[in-house]
Amino acid sequence: MKRIPVTVITGFLGAGKTTLLNRILREQHGRRYAVIVNEFGDIGIDGGLVVGTEDEVIELNNGCVCCKVRGDLIRVVSGLVRRNGFDGILIETSGLADPAPVVQTFFIDDEIRQRTRLDSVICVADGAHLQARLADSREAAEQLAQADFVLVNKIDLIDAPGLALVQDAVRRINPAAEWLTSVRCEIPLAALLDRGAFDLARVPFRTSPDETRDAPRGERTYRYVPHRVGVGVGAAIEQGRHTHGIDSVSLRVERPLDRTRFLAWLQQLVVEQGQDLLRAKGIVDLAGSQRRFVFQGVHMTMDADFDRPWRDGEHRDSRLVFIGRNLDRSELRESIAHCEIDA
Predict the structure, then answer these.
(1) What pTM was computed for the model?
(2) Residue spans in the chain of domains classed CATH 3.30.1220.10
(3) Fold entry, domain 4-199
(4) Could you read off the pLDDT of 36-46 as tens digits, one per residue?
(5) What is the DSSP letter of 161?
(6) What are the residue ranges of CATH 3.40.50.300 in the chain?
(7) What is the pLDDT of residues 26-37, one digit of tens each?
(8) Architecture of 230-337 per CATH?
(9) Coil, helix or strand at residue 55
């Protein structure tokens, strides 16, 4: 059964989400999308701004899609997949929404999980006003933290030093996201859609802004620049600076991890810190397994499975990225070390 790709478009008020949505619908790509638009208030507005005669626009009003009307979201998506007449589903959340519960919907509902696949979470950011929004809005930071792609829009309104400051702010909150820029959301759709960014088999990692981009087109290799913490720990950690209450912690462990201890460690982390865990993802080398173990999650929801076999000559290590609040870097480093096979 073909699973319909779902793209969640988030971002603060006025960043350009509807502009991006219209950009997708206007493109001559030959695909038919169902569009779910959400906003606050009893009277829909954004739905009237969305173009596209062959596309179906569904508005979820009188509340945020992330809270009051999540049941409506499940009902609407279930109805769409049963019709099976769409090439993709686009969900534009309210500018004040936390996208996490939307993402979780595609984990927790069995029918939706079987009939759809979450392709990516795109955060559209207003390059001219992002710094101000981060200073006064918790939601703006959460939207950035949970994105697979951050599209910094309106870069024509800022100079090069200003853009560098915006990039630094984004990377401090979410070093794992891919960074893109645009004017009026004019960007090749191939850079955003059908990228499989939320596919466990294609978990991307950027644990440092120091990236090498000398790979063939369409591929990326990354240079890790970890800070060694402690003696004989065997894990390297790169610590994101504290930004608007959100930290990023990246771990790299060279030795194989014991399966039982690691799974118990991951489960305990979700139980104890799930409410503060905005995003988590990892590729893990479990001792005795010839396949990569991959996971990623949002808050209390975690999806994990064995992936492809390790390739001949491929460097086997474990890479984990956590983005959230109240993350204890030292505790994460020390506790993951106890999962090493010879620890």
Answers:
(1) 0.71
(2) 230-337
(3) Rossmann fold (3.40.50)
(4) 876 543 333 34
(5) H
(6) 4-199
(7) 887 788 888 887
(8) 2-Layer Sandwich (3.30)
(9) coil
